[in-house]
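[job 4471] stage=fold_predict status=RUNNING
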Amino acid sequence: MNLVLWDIDRTLLYVGNTDRLVYRETFQEVVGRAATSLPARGTGVTMPLAVRELLTANAVPETDVERFADLIVDRLPDRLEAHREELVRHGTVMPGAVEALAAVHQAPDLIPTVVTGNLRASAEIKLRALSLNQYVDIPLGGYASDSAHRPDLVGIAQSRAAARHGTRFDAATTVIIGDSRQDVITGLEGGAKIIGVASGTTSAQQLSEAGAHHVLPDLRDPEELLSRIRALTNE
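[job 4471] inference complete, writing structure tokens
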């Protein structure tokens, strides 16, 4: 058995400005003033780290950063849930994602779940809003609510999958599919092979230079994706 760890944002789906709107609204609610600087797009950094960057970039005193960060992180999923209809109407499934997800889900030797910079609750909201949750085993995933250090999430997902399936998972049997340098770093430091997908803000060349083992332009060819997964896990 092999473990497949899907990234979410810009790999499987894109929610446009909704995440940034949620950051703005929650910052305003907690800090009491508008944010003038927002986290960079498409970096793959975990939400807790993005929130700390948001607070620092908006001149929140260092003595208040941790307290405000905890409050904002706690409130992000509820604020995102308030925008569910917007996600349903305007969220985009990335080209080929449904077919790729279905192919991995149907493969008897593959266990699909998620490793993401999203909090688990936020990840579920996005996946359910765009009807992608059926293709991944959400409880087995690694989320920013488990650790703000993204490479840790690989081991967390591996441990959860091992407890469920009675099989040890390691770098030889785990593949991350993602669009950002952070996905590549997560795999290299966390213990997984990486298939980069140049569907986000990081080019195919940048993904390859960062250390991705294979790079695809998109997810439109599910058979090619399966072939790449099996090539990496049979090395």
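[job 4471] summary: The first strand starts at residue 2 and ends at 6.
[job 4471] exit 0
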